[in-house]
């Protein structure tokens, strides 16, 4: 039964909870802030539906015609404002726009009202799309969303679902078959962080700024897509911004792997064929123009004929250029590799009960105020030297050209 599944294998996709006819499955939250299923034996009728739906217990991938070698594209949205406000090149927005225009449905991750958690929601308006857009880099609660999607599909509605690979697998596991109206998008995913870690960070910021949160923008582009940062706006009009070198959240995630869900260390959704119709992410590793550095570029791995159809119906919203899978894979290790947990994670969860979030992060990562100042100075000097070097070369070229004339 699913509650006997090893804790490190359960992804928390909640497909089992949605399928149980007796509502016998609940998801208590552990000391790290992650939910895991338990079965109420008094309610359970041993129908085994939960086991059949569970993608972690299945040895094969759901059969949706996914190709071993996807078609690969570099993509960005034509609208610069939409692109700036999305995480990568706004490929998701472009795919979802055609659904919303037709009043078809989109299902994706939105922040909770207090911005200290996230869950999946279904909608069919521009307002829903604006809530669903942008990455929230911690686990989203999918309870109930699979049931809602099934009802819509049974009424022959079209639904675009976007989530992590394990959530897409959870949806297919719950449905048990593909529906003509269902389209799936999976994020390239280096792992989901603990919702408890995120809420601890937000609590600390609320205390510091003396106000509730109005808006959160992780991987914010105000200093460029290639120089991401964290932006939080507060109801009292104040705001907080830290670039990736100075933000504890980015450091604990990208540098430290401090509080990623344990199942992500042996994620099943890294290989080919992929689980969803389209896989989306950042197209790292290319040579970018100034505008691309500022606004972001997406990668699309189109895995199925339905994926081809999605790309074709959204083509008016985006600039698309065919590239190779090798190029996409080279710059983006999370496409195929898993991350290693930080050995200090237990210490982190023990300490944040009594100490400020950011203090614990910096402490466990061994980063002090002084080391931050030194590394910033080193980076600034490097950038300055680079600028001087290019200016010198440019001047020399101009002089040579004048001499030739
Ligand atoms: C936890 C996480 C890890 C990621 N790791 C990588 C990586 O290593 N490399 C890479 O190239 N890309 C990664 N991505 C994807 C990347 O950040 C962008 O989300 C993606 O490129 C889409 O960007 P966009 O501009 O097209 O659209 P956006 O508008 O930014 O994307 C929004 C879509 O993402 C979904 N989404 C947002 N947050 C979550 C969440 N917490 N759980 C499930 N779905 C969510 C929404 O449902 C929505 O459909 C990750 C995303 C997440 C959430
Ligand atoms: S076996 Fe059936 S009733 Fe029991 S928990 Fe699983 S789905 Fe629910
Ligand atoms: S269906 Fe999802 S949440 Fe339930 S046991 Fe399996 S992996 Fe865990
Ligand atoms: S790394 Fe794999 S298991 Fe972890 S959230 Fe992403 S898709 Fe799911």
From TrEMBL:
Domain of life: Bacteria
Pfam families on file: Fer4_7, FrhB_FdhB_C
UniProt-recorded Gene Ontology molecular function terms: iron-sulfur cluster binding; metal ion binding
InterPro entries: 4Fe4S_Fe-S-bd, 4Fe4S_Fe_S_CS, FrhB_FdhB_C, Polyferredoxin-like_ET
Ranges where the 4Fe-4S ferredoxin-type domain occurs: 1-30, 35-64
Keywords: Iron, Iron-sulfur, Metal-binding
Database matches in Gene3D superfamilies: 3.30.70.20
PANTHER family with a match to the protein in the record: POLYFERREDOXIN PROTEIN FWDF (PTHR43193:SF2), PTHR43193
Protein name: Coenzyme F420-reducing hydrogenase beta subunit
């Amino acid at each position: 039964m699913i509650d006997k599944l090893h804790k490190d294998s359960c992804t928390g996709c909640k497909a089992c909870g949605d399928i149980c006819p007796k509502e016998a499955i609940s998801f208590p939250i552990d000391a790290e802030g992650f939910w895991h299923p338990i079965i109420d034996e008094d309610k359970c009728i041993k129908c085994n539906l939960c086991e059949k739906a569970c993608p972690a217990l299945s040895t094969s991938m759901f059969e949706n015609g996914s190709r071993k070698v996807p078609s690969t594209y570099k993509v960005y949205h034509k609208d610069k404002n939409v692109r700036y406000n999305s995480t990568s090149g706004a490929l998701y927005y472009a795919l979802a726009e055609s659904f919303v225009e037709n009043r078809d449905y989109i299902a994706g991750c939105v922040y909770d009202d207090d911005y200290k958690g996230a869950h999946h929601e279904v909608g069919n308006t521009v307002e829903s799309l604006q809530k669903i857009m942008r990455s929230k880099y911690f686990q989203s609660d999918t309870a109930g969303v699979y049931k809602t999607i099934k009802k819509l599909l049974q009424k022959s509605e079209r639904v675009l679902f976007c989530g992590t690979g394990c959530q897409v697998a959870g949806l297919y596991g719950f449905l048990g078959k593909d529906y003509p109206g269902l389209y799936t998008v999976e994020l390239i995913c280096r792992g989901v962080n603990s919702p408890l870690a995120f809420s601890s960070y937000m609590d600390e910021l609320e205390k510091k700024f003396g106000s509730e949160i109005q808006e959160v923008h992780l991987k914010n582009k105000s200093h460029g897509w290639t120089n991401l940062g964290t932006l939080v706006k507060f109801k009292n009009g104040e705001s907080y911004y830290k670039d990736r070198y100075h933000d504890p959240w980015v450091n604990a995630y990208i540098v430290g792997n401090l509080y990623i869900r344990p199942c992500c260390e042996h994620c099943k959704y890294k290989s080919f064929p992929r689980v969803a119709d389209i896989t989306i992410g950042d197209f790292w590793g290319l040579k970018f123009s100034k505008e691309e550095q500022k606004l972001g570029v997406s990668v699309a791995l189109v895995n199925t004929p339905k994926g081809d159809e999605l790309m074709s119906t959204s083509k008016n919203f985006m600039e698309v250029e065919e590239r190779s899978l090798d190029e996409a894979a080279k710059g983006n290790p999370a496409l195929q590799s898993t991350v290693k947990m930080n050995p200090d994670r237990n210490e982190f969860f023990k300490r944040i009960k009594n100490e400020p979030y950011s203090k614990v992060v910096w402490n466990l990562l061994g980063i002090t105020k002084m080391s931050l100042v030194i590394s910033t100075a080193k980076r600034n000097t490097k950038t300055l030297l680079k600028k001087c070097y290019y200016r010198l070369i440019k001047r020399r070229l101009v002089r040579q050209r004048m001499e030739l004339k």
